[in-house]
Amino acid sequence: MALKGYKYAQKSRNRNRVIGQRSIHDIISRRDMSYGTKLNYIRHHYTYYDGNHQFFHNANGKPNASKHILNEAIKEVIHGRVDPSVLGEINKLIMEWRKEQQ
Asked: What confidence score (pLDDT) does residue 30 get?
């Protein structure tokens, strides 16, 4: 029984290691990913979008202006017009929104 838990933990660590080694530049330069897939991957893995849907959707669940602005910023990063460090600034802004909400 303990061995089963060990194997699961080992697989989990290996999976996280592979995902963790993938840089944003790797995602941007991948030719086998469509633009939409890159946009979604970056939004969910490099920003604090997950867990903060209330800031990006209205009461009906439809995207608001904040989500469109986030998507535009990610689009600029994908096209190389803006440095990916802008995503860190966006994350700081999202954290400020969370503090104000509490």
From this structure: 87
Domain span at residue 90 reads 24-101
In whole numbers, what is the pLDDT of the chain averaged over residues?
85
3 assigned to some structural domain: no
pTM of the model: 0.75
What is the rounded (10 degree) CA torsion for 60, 45, 84, 98? 50
pLDDT on residue 22: 72
Count the domains in the chain.
1
